[in-house]
Specification:
The protein is an alpha/beta fold. The chain contains 6 helices and 13 strands. Strands 1, 2, 3, 4, 5, 6 and 7 form a 7-stranded mixed β-sheet that branches. A hairpin with a 2-residue loop joins β2 and β3. α4 crosses α6 and α5 crosses α6. The radius of gyration is 19 Å and the shape is elongated.
Length: 224
């Protein structure tokens, strides 16, 4: 089944129910100012509000185009008013198109389904680098320097997300949500097992203690 991630800059998006059509599943996610809090795999469509609490929609659009995770996503600017100059500014900032508020669940789906839903496909980057850590998503391989890390599929996906967010404390809930498993509470305990195995693999490869526990908060990949 094709996964289509639909991001919105309004927190209301988190309450939107998933949608399935033929061989595609559409999943709605909230997009915070600092960028995606989930692992992006497959098609990615982003709806950016013209005005946000912490920054403008134009600045958010610039950030998304500069972020390797979202630079190829399809971005729709959600305008407050029908204004020709606002439309031009949105497109210059990197938006692919625009629409007027409200950006409801149905309005988002209608906009996406009017196109090829998987057209927002984000090709996996060839290499993700964080210090000496190198991750090759297409090959599902990870190395520390020249040492190959032996990882299970879930451990690999977890490491990829952590490597895309280095030097940032990530809670267990954030890590589970990033892997699309937030509906199962058992995974909150499972993530500790995955982290333990990741640490072991990194130590064996000579990485030392770069995957650190922050008491009562979560885990952080320390990359200088």
């Amino acid at each position: 089944m094709n996964l289509v991630l639909i991001f919105g800059t309004s927190e209301e998006v988190e309450s939107f129910e998933d949608f399935e059509l033929n061989d595609s599943k559409f999943v709605f996610k909230y997009l915070p100012p600092e960028g995606p809090s989930t692992l992006i795999e497959g098609a990615c469509w982003i709806f950016v509000d013209w005005m946000l609490p912490e920054l403008s929609g134009l600045e958010m659009c610039h950030r998304l185009r500069a972020d390797p995770r979202t630079k190829d996503a399809h971005i729709t600017m959600v305008l407050e008013l029908e204004d020709a100059e606002d439309r031009r500014r949105a497109l210059r900032a990197g938006a692919d198109d625009y629409m007027l508020q409200p950006a409801s669940r149905q309005a988002m789906l209608d906009r996406i389904l009017a196109h090829n839903p998987v057209a927002g496909f984000r090709a996996a980057p060839e290499v993700i680098e964080a210090g000496k850590l190198k991750i090759m998503p297409a090959a599902e391989r990870a190395c520390w320097g020249d040492q190959l890390l032996t990882l299970s599929p879930n451990e690999f996906r977890l490491l990829r997300f952590i490597a895309e967010n280095p030097n940032r404390v990530l809670s267990r809930k954030e890590l589970i949500s990033a892997l699309g498993k937030s509906g199962d509470p058992d995974y909150l305990r499972t993530v500790d097992v995955w982290i333990k195995r990741l640490r072991s693999a990194l130590r064996k490869a000579g990485a030392g203690q770069i995957l650190r526990t922050v008491t009562n908060k979560g885990y952080v990949l320390d990359i200088i």
